[in-house]
Amino acid sequence: MNILIVGRGAMGLLFSHFLIDHNISIKSRAASPSIFSFTNIDGSSNQHQLNCANKKQISSADCVICCVKSYDVSNVITELAPFINNYCPIILTNNGMGVIEQLKQELSISNPIYALLTTMAAKRLSPNHIAHTGVGTNQMGLVSGSADSHHQQKLVDILANALPHYSYSEQILTLQWTKLAINCAINALTAIYNVNNGELKKQSYKQIIADVIKELVAVAKQEEILLNYDGLINTIYDVIDKTASNSSSMREDVLKQQETEIDFINGFIYRLGQTHNIPTPTNAKLYKQVKSLTLPT
C-alpha cells in the first residue's frame, strides 16, 4: 500500500516506523534528511530511510495519515485535496475535536475521513532521532464520508498488523468525547501550572477537574452524546496515575512558546456551551488562561 504520512514530528516518524514495510512517503513543511534513527521501547535502535513525498507520490497515495496538530489539519488537507483521489482515506491523529466541522466549512471534500485515537507516546531526541516511550492503544473509526467496505477492511487489516493494540470501532464519536474529557482535564492544568501529569492527583486540583467534566458532560448531552460522569472521572485519574511522570503536549507547547491545541480542547467545550446556552465557566477560564500564556501567532 502507498501510504502518505503528513508531518515529520515524533508521531509522524513513529507511525512511519510501524508501517515501514509498506511504501511510505512523508510530507513535511521543510526538506528533511531521508534517514531517521528510531529507538524502540526496549532500548534497541535502528535506522529507517523514507521517501520525501512529491506530487506523484501524493497523487498515488492509497491512504493519508495526518500527524499534525489540530490547528494545522485544515491547511494540510486543503493543500492535498487537489492531488489525492476522492476515494483515498484520510486518517486524522490530532487531539481535540472540531476539526471535521472546520473542514466541512472550509472545504468540499468527499474522501472518507477516519479518526485514529492513539495513546502511543514518542519523544524526539534530536531532529532525526525519536524514541518510542509508550506502547499505548490505537482506536479508529469513520467520522466523515462513506467508505467502500472492501477498501476499508484492507486498510483495517494493514493497520491491525502494524500498530500495537489496534481496533476498529463503530462508536468512535463516543471514544473521541472520552479522550476529549481526558485532555480537557489534564492538558490545560499542566500547562498553566507547569507541572507533570502526576501533580494533578493533589487535592487542590480535584474540584476544578470535577467542574471541567461536569460542564463537558452537559454539553455532550446536547450533542446527543451520553457520557457517565463517574466513569470519566475514574478514567481521568487512571490516566493521571499511569502518565504521572509525563509532561503533556500542551505544557511542552507553552514552554516552547508554540501554538497549542486549546481551541480544539477546552475551547471546543466553551464554544459549544455558547451554542447551546450552557454555562461553561471552568472550561472558558482554562481556555483563556492557556491562550494568554502563548505569544500571538
UniProtKB/TrEMBL annotation:
Ketopantoate reductase C-terminal domain residues: 172-292
Domain Ketopantoate reductase N-terminal: where?
Answer: 3-143
Instruction: State which Enzyme Commission number(s) the record gives.
Output: 1.1.1.169
Task: Indicate whether NADP appears among the record's keywords.
Answer: yes
Catalytic activity as recorded in UniProt: (R)-pantoate + NADP(+) = 2-dehydropantoate + NADPH + H(+)
Top EC category: oxidoreductase
Q: Work out whether the entry's keyword set contains GTP-binding.
A: no
Family membership noted in the UniProt record? Belongs to the ketopantoate reductase family.
Name of the protein: 2-dehydropantoate 2-reductase
Lineage start: Bacteria, Pseudomonadati, Pseudomonadota, Gammaproteobacteria, Alteromonadales
